[in-house]
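Record Aspartate aminotransferase family protein, 466 aa.
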Amino acid sequence: MGDSTHDDRQEQYRRALQVAHERALAWVESLDERSVRPDIDVDGVLDRLDRRLGDEGTDAAAVVQELADACEPGLMAMGSPRFYGFVIGGAYPAALAADWLVSAWDQNTGSRQPTPATAAVEEVAAQWLLELLGLPDGSGVGFATGATSANLSCLVVARDAVLRRRGHDPADGLSRSGGIRFLAGDAVHTSVVLAGRITGLGAPRTVGADAQGRIDVAGLARALAEDDAPTVVALQAGDVHSGAFDEFATAIEVARAADAWVHVDGAFGLWAAASPRLRHLVAGVDGADSWATDAHKTLNVPYDCGIAIVRDEAAMTASLGAHAAYLPEMASIADPYDHVAELSRRARGVPVWAALRSLGRRGVADLVEGLADAATGLANGFRGIPGLEVFNDVVFTQVCLASGDDRATAALGDWLRQEGTVWASSSTWRGRTVVRFAVSNFRTDDDAVRRTVDAVARGAAAVGIR
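=>
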């Protein structure tokens, strides 16, 4: 009876995984040509699901088939070469396949002792990341859920570090310390704002920015000179609208003179450092104390994979390290759970290793430069459409498009998302309504650029932009 049960369970795995493989492969193969928008909304998907939980179970393969049948019409083709919403990359073949293995292996990658295989792979990936991004060797690297949680991890370390510098014990909390000053440019991303609120720093006080969103360094200097409170400064590598980069060398020098901790939100822009052609955009960024980025954006690994990096690994483990009698004893080398605010997590760094191993140093540079080239191609094409203007200086991977009439621009965004050839986000920037194209997918080639420009031209004509 035992053997029969084992054989039946193994057969369920085989059949369920086979269905998943077939449906996943069919989905990936459809991305170049399918409509980007979902065909049905949430209510439509709910109508396709049997929402009654039955008394008896259902065959595993049938469950997977039912799931795919119900969900596929409601899926956004976020892996499409013509998806420009938010800042979301695709999934390289090696990274996607490695992610499947991560799920099958089911390793809780918190400690090096019980999960040596995935911990070792993540350590190699971490070292490769520091080399590619030009960040200090020996920095602590943690694999978080996304850019928001990576920013959160770094700001926890920043908070504690500036308190210790003033002789306060972080365990006493902020109330006994007199508070911490948190400064950022006017274009600070909402993920940093949220992370500041969660860590108790509060929303950052903004010190100004130029027209492209770069922090006002003079404004930062004035704010720092007001008093000598412990301070955390947030800088930005890649503005979400313009793609612009702060002047790191100057801003970091000003912050260092005030003994401030400098954190860099580089969710997608930090990857410019991996390109010989583009790394001038992040000149001086290695002088900061911490950095956050997101591998599911520019590196094109599957969700979820934020990366938190802190120059002083000891400070990182002091703030984020976990200690309990039931956990393995601390070794001389930090454990994975010493680098993020999680004890239990999947082996997120394994798909990062697979992507980097698959691409190599030159491949990563080609990827980053290809995204920037596609953004330039879009901007050049859009400039040829009557009635539209490219509203930002295109320096990296972001393109903001506007007409002279905000209502017409909004209508263009709605038309594009409904028509389905492309999907781009609408936003408000510098007091204008814009349609924002974030080029993040390695599949976005010359043909995707051509088809995107054609769709925008058709959309502009359809909504009356001349």
